[in-house]
Design a protein that fits this description.
Layout lengths: L7 H8 L9 H9 L3 H26 L4 H21 L1 H11 L6 H21 L6
Helix pairs in contact: 2-3, 3-4
């Protein structure tokens, strides 16, 4: 990984949609293009909805009603949010990179290039013609 990693406070600010200083530009590119980028997008989503989910669970389940119904409603809400986030993940990550000065679609291009290189390495090792 190249680039300096943000401290926990800046990282949390970034997870809630804040823009980091330009010295973290390379780390943001890594965050958007590494092998685990989809998991990072999901983590970002869960971090963003955690406070609201906790308030709703406490309000609906503990203070005013049945906690199993509140837990079920919370789970369904999380599943809906996760689906929406996954559906728009490529576009949102590419838009985030534009804020750091990268051209539109740069993150997708980097991921495609990385995947093509990995596929070529796989073919070179495992798809050799049989030797006679």
């Amino acid at each position: 990984m190249s680039g300096k990693r943000p401290n926990p406070v800046r990282w949390l600010y970034y997870q809630y949609g804040g823009t980091l200083p330009q010295r973290y530009r390379e780390w943001v590119l890594h965050d958007a293009t590494c092998k685990t980028w989809v998991l990072r997008v999901l983590l970002r989503c869960l971090i963003q909805i955690l406070p609201l989910g906790a308030v709703l669970f406490v309000g609906l389940g503990v203070l005013g009603g049945s906690w199993p119904i509140a837990a079920g409603a919370l789970l369904l809400g999380i599943l809906v949010v996760v689906r929406i986030v996954l559906t728009s993940s490529v576009d949102s990550v590419d838009a985030r990179l534009v804020r750091y000065g990268y051209p539109p679609g740069h993150g997708s291009a980097v991921r495609r290039q990385r995947d093509a290189e990995a596929a070529e390495r796989y073919r070179a090792i495992w798809r050799q013609p049989p030797q006679e």
